[in-house]
């Protein structure tokens, strides 16, 4: 039979009351006052009467000091750099302060004193404050300078060790101190800074000098062998002497072969130190002997020990014995020999560097591990013997490990990778970063690159077979990527268009590089090459080439045609090293002829360049191809390089005659060709024979050297020999190296000698007569142009003037610039009211041009006149254009970008009047032929801006719509979705009222009139729809609200989206926590309410069930209250044997701030005495 115990609420309360202690027991359980509040330990009385604490409570605590300090500096008004009182806290002064704060990390606050002086409060760490102070003094305060003279030998004490003393002085005084160099004999030290700083720095320097004046220096010569007895072991003896005397004693180290000992310090200290040194010397002079012991040289380093440890140990045991490196006691040698051993092993030299490892890592590890020395012979010895020395056991272990390493290396595989040398540097990377990544990935593989000087493509891999194979595949993959990205394409672009392809500040070329991911290299400015090299992926290179060619095509009348020539003739047309095709390109104005890749089988040849020259090159190319097909012949003949220009003739006249008469093509060597004498003749057999005959006759005649004379007026001699004989050099180049000799200066002879080939001499003579005739007919014309325009006329690097001198064959000389600082001409000096008759000067014509405005042109009259016109055409002209003032800021653009673009485009200067002038006139300055284009461009821009203004006016139409504020959230929508859609759809701006606006029901719409009306209609439609909605309140048990709302509102959003209604649940603390409001169209509201009530019915059952379960896990509310009543009110914290219960003391009042003081009140933020921060 079984029984069941039922636990009722009453029995449970009885049970709990039985567990409570009785009253007596409770009192015994209370803690005593001393247990609850143990007293602090008492201080024991010390002999002196002071009390010393003995525990952690009363141990001395070091006072904490703030690491942040604050200093205030004052800069008087007269010493301020920036005195503009209207810009205090702004402008350059503020920028300087911000820069100082960034540099030093200190915080600065500025204020103005009544005397307009500047007060600066600096806060921060000590070093930051000192640095900031130095910066403030140098950048915000005017600087003064002074010099101070001290003896030259004291300068080094001012500088201090490593310049530390000098830096400290400069920081302390906020000055800059300049000390003359050691090789400078001057004793003047220059100080620059503020007046206050100068005085401080002077005082400090003079103090240092005064200290040094009290010091003395003494030099004592003592034989080197006695120095160790003076210094003692570890310099102990000399240290004791210095401590005793206070002087500094400098004994030269053993490695320095000097006997002089230097003593410095106060005079009395130095004298005492000298006495002590001499005393030690006299004691040791006659009391030492020398004993020497021989030992093998390889043992010396072991006897000495690491950093001399063994020697030090022996000298400590026998302090009266001095042991140089060449001396040692016999017993020590014997001991060392007994403990040392060595062995030699033979290893193939090719493994030596692998045994050593990178940076000696392998061999150093073996040495340290086995305490041995390993000598591996250098490469130049070509020896296989490796010597191991040290402890016998260590030697054997090291030998075993080295042999194991060698065996392993002999079993390793070596693989040679063929990688083009041009990729080696890219694979290695900057400072070896990329190859380090490969080595880290394959640590067991040794990768060796050939020396760059060897021009080898072989990269050697060595290591375990599998690892070597993996490494080889990885590196081949890297090379494949480089090959793909290393495709190279050369694009011929006419030299004059290179700067357009680069663009202003490199903008064009940078854009092409970034967008095509290619590397684009242009030839140097002084190079004759026209090739632009593009490197990267093939497809990207093609795109970059197309874009570069498009720029060239836009800038010039460049055409491109294709000519069909059988591919079998291409090589013969190109010629050896491209000589044939190059000669055609040069003759036809530098056109570009592109042949397809050899072996491609393509017949099309591309010719690109100016239209006329392209057609000319086409004809020549087709003619040459026809000749090749009719079995053309090639002949070669030789002529001195100096004859080539004469054979070609001026403008190619001579060679053209030969070509026209014979039909053969004659090709001369270029500057790049190695053989500069070889001339090639190409054509039919007959044409080649005739051309060869004519050229041979010309060359033969040139070899026939003759001498001739001509008469040249001495006044013209200087023209020919000026500029180191430039004119004569040009004559020699043009006329087959003819030599022209002028008489010596001062002989007054007019006879000039010409020597060379007969035809060359005759041609040179004729040219010289033409030059003389030009010189005789030469006139000098003055062109007056105001000096301020001279730089503009000259152009960049004088390019415009050089062009005029070439075009008109004249000389142009610009005057010296007028010095604006030069004083005016002195007035006539009068004595006794009369001017000196000898000093009377001609009156100056006020209409006469200034010397600085006169440009002198020399040459033939008609040429000079043409040059004057050309110069005047380069004088900038200014015109004014009427532009409404309100458009000026739009023409200037953001940070001047708009006006700069126009100036660059039209090559003029555009001056916009200052805003204060309120002027409508804009000035354009530039060349006359540029002004019209610039004016048209400016007026076109004005039209665009006016059109924009009109458009802005149309877009500024405003209208308002009145909407009840309660509908505003609905119109805006969740996260502004609805209103954003209306704004985007109608392209308008919709502004809702602010919280503080009076008209809370006004919505403002801004935009085009028709669009604003459409937006208003859309909003009104929403309002109408909202007004049709109704709101109904229903009662839902608050216990199911959380379930209906769902996690993060998912449940309620789903209901609202499904039924197109709005639900409002009560907030916490609401009067009716069960009231829920449903808003929407009537039929939808009813459906939503039904759904909510169904959910309530479903969820309330779960809620009741949960409450029932919880009732068994917590005490009943009424019972708990009863228990509290039984217990009575809380007595707080109770203790036994308190002071106020045993004596007359009162119990402390817990509400009293006197009995229970607080630990402190919150500290208010400290306001700055200088006012709010300005930066």
From TrEMBL:
Q: Which PROSITE patterns match?
A: KH_TYPE_1 (PS50084)
Top-level lineage group: Eukaryota
List where Polar residues composition bias occurs: 1-11
Q: Where in the cell is it found?
A: Cytoplasm; Nucleus
Q: Where is the composition biased (Basic and acidic residues)?
A: 12-23
Where is this protein chiefly located? cytoplasm
Query: Which SMART domains has this protein been placed in?
Result: KH (SM00322)
What are the protein's UniProt keywords? Acetylation, Cholesterol metabolism, Coiled coil, Cytoplasm, HDL, Lipid metabolism, Lipid transport, Nucleus, Phosphoprotein, Repeat, RNA-binding, Steroid metabolism, Sterol metabolism, Transport
Question: What GO terms in the biological process aspect are recorded for it?
Answer: cholesterol metabolic process; lipid transport
Record-annotated K Homology domain positions: 142-210, 214-282, 339-407, 411-480, 485-553, 557-626, 631-700, 704-773, 777-876, 877-943, 955-1024, 1028-1097
Q: Which Pfam families does this UniProt record tie to the protein?
A: KH_1 (PF00013), KH_Vigilin (PF24668)
What InterPro entries does the annotation carry? KH_dom (IPR004087), KH_dom_type_1 (IPR004088), KH_dom_type_1_sf (IPR036612), KH_Vigilin_N (IPR057778)
Signal sequence, renumbered to the chain: none
Under the heading Gene3D superfamilies, the entry gives: K Homology domain, type 1
In UniProt terms, what function does this protein have?
Appears to play a role in cell sterol metabolism. It may function to protect cells from over-accumulation of cholesterol.
> What's the protein here called?
Vigilin
- Source organism per entry reads Cyclopterus lumpus
- Please state the gene responsible for encoding this protein: hdlbpa
């Amino acid at each position: 039979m079984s029984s069941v115990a039922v636990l009722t609420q009453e029995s449970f309360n009885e049970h709990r009351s039985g567990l409570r202690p009785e009253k007596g027991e409770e009192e015994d359980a209370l803690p005593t006052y001393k247990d609850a509040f143990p007293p602090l330990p008492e201080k024991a009385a010390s002999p002196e009467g002071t009390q010393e604490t003995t525990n952690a409570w009363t141990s001395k605590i070091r006072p904490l000091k703030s690491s942040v300090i604050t200093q205030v500096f004052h800069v008087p008004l007269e010493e301020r750099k920036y005195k503009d009182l209207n810009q205090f806290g702004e402008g350059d002064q503020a920028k300087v302060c911000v820069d100082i704060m960034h540099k030093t990390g200190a915080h600065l606050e500025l204020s103005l004193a009544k005397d307009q002086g500047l007060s600066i409060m600096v806060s921060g760490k000590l070093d930051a404050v000192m640095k900031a102070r130095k910066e403030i003094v140098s950048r915000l305060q005017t600087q003064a300078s002074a010099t101070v003279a001290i003896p030259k030998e004291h300068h080094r004490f001012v500088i201090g060790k490593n310049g530390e003393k000098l830096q400290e002085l400069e920081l302390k005084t906020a000055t800059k101190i300049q000390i003359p160099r050691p090789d400078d004999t001057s004793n003047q030290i220059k100080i620059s800074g503020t007046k206050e700083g100068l005085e401080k720095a002077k005082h400090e320097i003079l103090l240092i000098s005064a200290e040094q004046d009290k010091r003395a220096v003494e030099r004592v010569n003592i034989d080197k062998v006695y120095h160790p007895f003076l210094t003692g072991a570890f310099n102990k003896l000399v240290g004791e002497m210095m401590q005793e005397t206070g002087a500094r004693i400098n004994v030269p180290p053993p490695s320095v072969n000097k006997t002089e000992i230097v003593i410095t310090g106060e005079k009395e200290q130095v004298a005492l130190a000298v006495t002590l040194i001499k005393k030690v010397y006299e004691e040791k002079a006659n009391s030492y002997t020398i004993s020497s012991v021989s030992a093998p040289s390889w043992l010396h380093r072991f006897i000495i020990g690491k950093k001399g440890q063994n020697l030090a140990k022996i000298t400590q045991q026998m302090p009266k014995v001095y042991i140089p490196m060449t001396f040692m006691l016999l017993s020590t040698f014997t001991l060392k020999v007994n403990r040392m051993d060595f062995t030699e092993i033979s290893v193939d030299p090719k493994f030596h560097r692998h045994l050593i490892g990178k940076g000696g890592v392998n061999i150093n590890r073996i040495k340290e591990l086995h305490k041995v020395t390993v000598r591996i012979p250098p490469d130049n010895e070509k020896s296989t013997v490796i010597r191991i020395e040290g402890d016998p056991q260590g030697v054997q272990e090291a030998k075993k490990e080295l042999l194991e390493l060698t065996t392993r290396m002999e079993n390793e595989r070596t693989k040679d990778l063929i990688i083009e040398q041009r990729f080696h540097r890219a694979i290695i990377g900057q400072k070896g970063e990329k190859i380090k990544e490969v080595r880290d990935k394959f640590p067991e593989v040794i990768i060796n690159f050939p020396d760059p000087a060897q021009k080898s493509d072989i990269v050697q891999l060595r290591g375990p077979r599998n690892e070597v194979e993996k490494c080889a595949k990885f590196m081949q993959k890297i090379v494949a990527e480089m090959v793909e990205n290393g495709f190279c394409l050369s694009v011929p672009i006419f030299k004059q268009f290179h700067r357009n392809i680069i663009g202003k500040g490199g903008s064009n070329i940078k854009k092409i590089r970034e967008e095509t991911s290619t590397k684009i290299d242009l030839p140097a400015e002084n190079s004759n090459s026209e090739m632009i090299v593009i490197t990267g992926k093939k497809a990207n290179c093609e795109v970059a080439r197309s874009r570069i060619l498009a720029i060239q095509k836009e800038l010039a009348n460049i055409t491109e045609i294709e000519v069909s020539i059988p591919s079998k003739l291409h090589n013969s047309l190109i010629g050896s090293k491209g000589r044939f095709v190059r000669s055609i390109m040069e003759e036809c104005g530098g056109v570009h002829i592109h042949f397809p890749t050899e072996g491609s089988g393509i017949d099309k040849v591309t010719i690109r360049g100016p239209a006329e020259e392209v057609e000319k090159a086409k004809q020549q190319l087709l003619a040459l191809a026809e000749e090749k097909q009719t079995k053309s012949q090639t002949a070669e003949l030789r002529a001195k390089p100096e004859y080539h220009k004469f054979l070609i003739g001026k403008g190619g006249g001579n060679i053209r005659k030969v070509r026209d008469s014979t039909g053969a093509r004659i090709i001369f060597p270029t500057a790049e060709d190695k053989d500069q004498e070889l001339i090639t003749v190409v054509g039919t057999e007959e044409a080649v024979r005739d051309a060869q005959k004519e050229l041979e006759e010309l060359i033969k005649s040139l070899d026939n050297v003759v001498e001739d004379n001509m008469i040249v007026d001495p006044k013209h001699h200087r023209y020919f020999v000026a500029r180191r004989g430039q004119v004569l050099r040009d004559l020699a180049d043009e006329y087959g190296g003819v030599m022209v000799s002028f008489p010596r200066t001062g002989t007054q002879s007019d006879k000039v000698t010409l020597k060379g080939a007969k035809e060359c001499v005759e041609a040179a003579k004729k040219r010289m007569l033409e030059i003389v005739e030009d010189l005789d007919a030469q006139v000098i014309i003055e062109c007056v142009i105001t000096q301020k325009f001279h730089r503009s006329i000259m152009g960049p690097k004088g390019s415009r003037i050089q062009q005029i001198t070439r075009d008109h064959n004249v000389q142009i000389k610009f005057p010296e610039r007028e010095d604006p600082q030069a004083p005016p001409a002195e007035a006539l000096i009068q004595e006794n009211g009369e001017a000196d008759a000898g000093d009377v000067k001609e009156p100056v014509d006020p209409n006469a041009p200034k010397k600085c405005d006169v440009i002198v042109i020399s040459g033939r009259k008609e040429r000079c006149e043409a040059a004057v016109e050309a110069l005047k055409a380069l004088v900038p002209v200014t015109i004014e254009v009427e532009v409404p003032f309100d458009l000026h800021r739009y023409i200037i653009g953001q940070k001047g970008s708009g006006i700069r673009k126009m100036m660059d485009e039209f090559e003029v200067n555009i001056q916009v009047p200052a805003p204060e002038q309120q002027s409508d006139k804009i000035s354009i300055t530039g060349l006359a032929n540029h002004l019209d284009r610039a004016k048209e461009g400016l007026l076109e821009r004005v039209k665009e801006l006016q059109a924009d203004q009109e458009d802005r006016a149309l877009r500024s139409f405003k209208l308002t719509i009145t909407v009840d504020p309660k509908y505003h959230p609905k119109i805006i929508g969740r996260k502004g979705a609805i209103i954003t859609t209306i704004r985007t759809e109608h392209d308008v701006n919709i502004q809702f009222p602010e919280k503080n606006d009076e008209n809370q029901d006004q919505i403002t719409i801004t935009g085009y009139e028709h669009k604003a009306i459409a937006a208003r209609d859309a909003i009104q439609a929403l309002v109408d729809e909202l007004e049709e909605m109704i709101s109904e309140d229903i009662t839902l048990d608050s216990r199911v609200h959380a379930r209906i709302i769902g996690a993060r509102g998912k449940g309620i959003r789903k209901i609202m989206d499904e039924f197109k209604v709005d639900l409002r649940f009560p907030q916490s603390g609401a009067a009716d926590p069960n009231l829920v409001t449903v808003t929407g169209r009537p039929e939808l509201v009813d459906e939503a309410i039904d759904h909510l009530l169904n959910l309530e019915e479903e969820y309330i059952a779960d809620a009741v069930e949960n409450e029932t379960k919880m009732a068994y896990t917590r005490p009943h509310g009424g019972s708990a209250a009863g228990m509290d009543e039984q217990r009575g009110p809380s007595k707080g914290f109770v203790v036994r044997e308190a002071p106020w219960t045993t004596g007359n003391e009162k119990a402390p009042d817990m509400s009293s701030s006197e009995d229970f003081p607080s630990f402190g009140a919150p500290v208010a933020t400290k306001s700055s005495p200088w006012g709010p921060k300005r930066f």
